[in-house]
Write a structure and sequence with these properties.
With 95 residues, the chain is an alpha/beta fold. It has one domain. The chain is built from two helices and six strands. It has a six-stranded mixed beta sheet. Strand 5 and strand 6 form a beta hairpin.
Length: 95
């Protein structure tokens, strides 16, 4: 299915922190998505979350996701909520 109003970008700041996917629907940044095979490693988890939160502030976005191999959950961070979702569930979710 083709959605012409959706654009997908990549975000990177001056410190090299990056968000894998910035989903824009029309003029609004609708969702930020990180992809990380495993988030059990504290250093990996911290890196992914830190970049996602910085991107959220700069791009004014509150819908934050990290797609993982098998971890699922939700966590509050600062004034936002991050959803962790296994890839297979993300692929099967309605859009």
């Amino acid at each position: 299915m083709f959605y012409p109003e959706i654009e997908i970008f990549y975000w990177k700041n001056e410190r090299g922190e990056e968000v894998d996917f910035v989903v824009k629907r029309g003029p609004v940044v609708d969702e930020l998505i990180q992809v990380s095979y495993e988030v059990e490693n504290p250093l990996t988890r911290e890196r992914e979350i830190k970049a996602l939160l910085k991107g959220a502030v700069e791009l004014r976005c509150s819908q934050l996701k990290i797609i993982t191999d098998d971890y699922e959950g939700e966590e509050p961070h600062q004034d936002r909520k991050i959803t962790f979702l296994p890839l297979w569930k993300w692929l099967l979710a309605p859009r």
